[in-house]
Amino acid sequence: xxxxxxxxxxxxxxxxxxxxxxxxxxxxxxxxxxxxxxxxxxxxxxxxxxxxxxxxxxxxxxxxxxxxxxxxxxxxxxxxxxxxxxxxxxxxxxxxxxxxxxxxxxxxxxxxxxxxxxxxxxxxxxxxxxxxxxxxxxxxxxxxxxxxxxxxxxx
Length: 155
What we know:
Blueprint: H1 2-13, H2 15-154
Helix pairs in contact: 1-2
């Protein structure tokens, strides 16, 4: 509308108005180009804002995933530390069991030695008892002989 008014005014003004009309036409074209460029810039700004919003959302999502991953890593580290402690305790218990088995073996060897010693004493006592029984038979025989002689003497 402004350009039309400018053209009318230029026609009234004559030769000088024609120059004004050319300038007015250029101003109108520049205005239209400026309008189109402004619209393009607005669209570009909207696209940039959408891209920035998507990037922000992606960063927030990534941040959550990183936090989750960090927590999982902490949990895994704690679990591995607990497993290591349990393994160390198992090694300690195994060493204690090994020591107890060694002590039992030594005690067992002592018991076997004591049983062998007692067995030797029993064998010795048995031999002595057999000797005493044999001596007792001899003494009984001798006593019977003495008793027979005593009976004869008393008769």
